[in-house]
Batch of 2 targets.
Target 1
Amino acid sequence: MSVQEAWMKYDLYNPSDEHAILRRSIRTFAEKELEPQAEEFNNKEQFNIPLFRKLGPLGLLGITTPVEYGGSGLDALAAVIAHEELSAVDPAFALAYLAHAMLCVNNIAVNADDAQKKRYLPKLCSGEWIGAMGLSEPGAGTDVLSMSTTAKKSGASYILNGRKLWITNGTVDDAGTPCDCLLLYAAAERKEGERTKISTFIVTAEDKGFSVGQKIRNKLGMRASTTAELCFDDCSLPAERLLGAEGEAITHMMRNLEIERLTLAAMALGIARRCIDVMCKYANERQAFGKKLHAFGQIQAHIANSYAEFNAARAYVYDTARRLDLNKPGNRLASDAVKLIAAPMAKTVADRAIQVLGGYGYVGEYTVERLWRDAKLLEIGGGTNEAHQKNITSDLMRAL
Ligand SMILES: Cc1cc2nc3c(=O)[nH]c(=O)nc-3n(C[C@H](O)[C@H](O)[C@H](O)COP(=O)(O)OP(=O)(O)OC[C@H]3O[C@@H](n4cnc5c(N)ncnc54)[C@H](O)[C@@H]3O)c2cc1C
C-alpha cells in the first residue's frame, strides 16, 4: 500500500458516495493512463490531446456544468478532488484540464445565457472542443484593468484588437492550431476620465482575425501543457458572442477566479501528496551509515513537517470547497488565502523531497524534480502570491 493510500483511509469530511467514487475513478485513470505518459510528454513539451479527450466520457470536462448542457452537474468539492488526483501524477496535464474545465467551461456554464450554453457547452464537455481563457497580456497581468485588448462596437458586431499572453491551451500543438473555444476578456475603447469597462466574449477557432502568435517554449515547469500568445487583428465577432452585458466582465472574472484559485490550491495538494509518498518510500529503502534514512532526525524533520503542512493545507482547501457556491461570488478571501497557503507548501514539500533523495531527487527518474518545477507555477498563475496578499489585506480592511 502506498503512503497516499494510508492517508486516504482518513478522508476528510466523510465524503459522499459520489465524491468517494469520483476520487477512486480518477485515481484509477491517473495511475493507468496518465502516469505512463507523464515524463515523456514533459520531455517533449507536448500536450497529450488524445488522452485529454478521454476525460470527456469520464464526465470530467464539464464537471461543474449542469447535466442539461452535457456536464456532470457536480460541485466545487468534486472539482477539487479531480484536480488533486490528476496533479498527484501529472500537474501539467492537470493545468490543461483546469484551463479547459474551470477557466473556460465553468465560466460559460455560470455566466452565459441559455442559447450560448446550448451552443458551446456540449462540445466542450464531450471533449470534441478544447477550451481556454484569455485574460493576461504582455503588459497587464496582476494589474488586469490596464489591459489593452479592445472590443469596439461596430453596428451589430464587436471588432477585437490586441494580444493575450501566457494562455494555457491557447494553442494545442506545435503547428499553432488554436484552441476551439476561447473565453476572452477585452476592454471597451477607453474614454477620457471613465473607468475601464471590460466585457467577456466567446471566440472560436474559425473566427477571422484570431490567430496564435508565439508558442511559449522552454518553460521551467508545466511543460506538458501548452502556453501561447494569442493575436486579435480586426477580429469581428457577432453580438451574440458577448457574455452577459457589456462591461459585466469583472463580475464574471471575480466569480470564476474563486474556483480557479481553489482548484490551483487543489493541484498543490496533489503535488505535495505525491512528494511525501516518494520521500517516505525512499527514506525507508535507502541506507546510509548502516541505517535507513528515516532514522536520521533531519530526514524526519523533512518528512514530518511536510506531512503536517500538507494536512493543514488540505483541511483548509476542503473546508473552502465545501463552502464555495459556484454561482455566487463571496469567497474571494478564502480562495486567495487557500492558494497563498497551498502553493508555497507544495513548492517547499517538493524541495524537501529532492533533498531527501539527494542526487536521485535532482533527476527525472523519481518524479520529484518535475513536481518541484511544476509547483512553482502555482505561485504565479491565477494570481501571484503578492496579489493574494494584496487582496486578502484589502478585504480584511474593508471588513473593519
Ligand atoms: C504557465 C503559465 C500559464 C498561464 N496560463 C494563463 C491562462 O490560461 N490565462 C491567462 O489569462 N493567464 C495565464 N497565465 C498568466 C498569469 O496569470 C500571470 O502570469 C500572472 O497573473 C502574473 O502576471 P504577470 O506575469 O504579468 O506578472 P506581473 O503582474 O507583471 O507581476 C510581476 C511581479 O510584480 C508583482 N506585483 C505586481 N503588482 C503588484 C502589487 N500591486 N503589489 C505587489 N507586487 C506586485 C507580482 O506579484 C510579481 O511578483 C499563465 C502564466 C503562466 C506562467
Target 2
Amino acid sequence: MGVKQMPSYDVELVDIVKDFESGGGRVRAVDHVSVQIEDSEFFALLGPSGCGKTTTLRLIAGFEQPTAGHILIRGRAMEGIPAYHRPVNTVFQDYALFPHLTVEQNIMFGLQMEGVHKKEARVLAAEALEKVRLPGVGERKPHQLSGGQQQRVALARALVKQPAVLLLDEPLGALDLKLRKNMQFELKALQRDVGITFIYVTHDQEEAITMADRIAIMNDGLMLQVGTPKQIYEHPETHFVADFIGETNFIAGTLIERRADGYGTVRLGDGTVIRAQLSETLGGSAGTVTVAIRPERISISTPLNPPKALGNADEATVLDALLVDSQYIGTDTRYTLRIGDEIELVARLQNIKDQEHAALKIGGNVKVFWQDSSTTVLDK
Ligand SMILES: Nc1ncnc2c1ncn2[C@@H]1O[C@H](COP(=O)(O)OP(=O)(O)O)[C@@H](O)[C@H]1O
Ligand SMILES: [Mg+2]
C-alpha cells in the first residue's frame, strides 16, 4: 500500500484569529476559524454585516495579516507572501476600475505589470471580455458603461490573470434586484466554465443558496456551520443558522428522552409530547431545547380533508390547531396556527390548488401534521 496522501485543498484556513485595535479597545473580527476549500469550488461566506466576512477575504488575499493561525493556498503557507505574489485576485463591490484608463487598458494592466507583451495582453483582454459577455467595449472608459457592465469589466480584469482563486466581496451588491438575479446565473455559469475556485462574500442568503456549492455561515467572527445549501437549510445546527437562513418556526420544549435512532421525545410548553429529530451538535443530556421546523414542511388539514399520505404514522406528528390568520404572498399563502394557548406556528402552502385554500377558514379547527424527519431539536 502506498503512503496515504494528505488531502490537498485550494485554500486552507487553520485556526485563524484576527484582532483589530480600535479606539483603545480590541475587536476580534475573526475568531478561530478553520475551513478547507476545495479546488473549483464555489464557496460562499454568508453572515450579517460586521460578522467578519470581508476580513476573512482580506486575510486570504494578503491585505491583512492574521493575529494567529495559518493560511495555505494550494498547500503553500502564505506567511510573509505579499498580496501581489499570491495566486489570488479580488473583485470588489465598487469595481475599483481605473477611471482614466480604457476598459482594455484596465484589463491589460495587471498582465503588463507581470511582463506580458502588449500584443498578447490585447488578445487575452479581448478573450476575457468575451467570457464576461461584453465584447467590443475595449475602447470605452469605465464611466461610459452601466454599473453591471463595469462589474463585468472588473471580473474580466480579475479572470485574465488566471488566478487559482478568485475572491469576490459582495460583487453584485450595488446592482438592482433584476440585474443581480441575472448576474447570479451568469457568474455561476462562468465559474463552472473557467473552473476557478470562487470565494464569494455575501450577506444575501438567497444569493448564497442559489450560487454556492458550499456555504459557511459566520456570526461575530465565528464560523458557525459549513455545508451544502441543502445541509445548511435542512439541517441547521444552531438557532442562529436556522433563523438566519429562510423562515423557521421555533418551539420551546423540554427534551425528556433521547433515543438511539437519532430522535428524541420533547414536551412542548402546553404539555403536548412530540417525537423530533436531534441535531448532531445538540449538547447536554436533557433540558430546555428548541424544536425547529420550516413552514413549508407543515401541512394543514380540515375535518373534511384528514391527514393522509403520511407514510408510517409512527414517523409523523399530527396536532389539533386553530387557524388564526392567513397572508397571501404570491407563490404561497402563509397560515398562522395556534396549538394550545402558547404555541404559534406558521405553515406555508403553495398556491396551486385553490379549493385547498378555500377550505381553510380563519377561526376554524384544523389538524397540522409533519414528518418527524422535518424537525430539528436544537440547543435553546
Ligand atoms: N481596519 C479595521 N479596524 C478596526 N476594526 C475593523 C477593521 N476592519 C474591520 N473591523 C471590524 O471587524 C469586524 C468585522 O468586519 P468585516 O470583516 O468588515 O465584516 P463584514 O464584511 O462581515 O461586514 C467589524 O466589527 C468591523 O468593525
Ligand atoms: Mg464586508
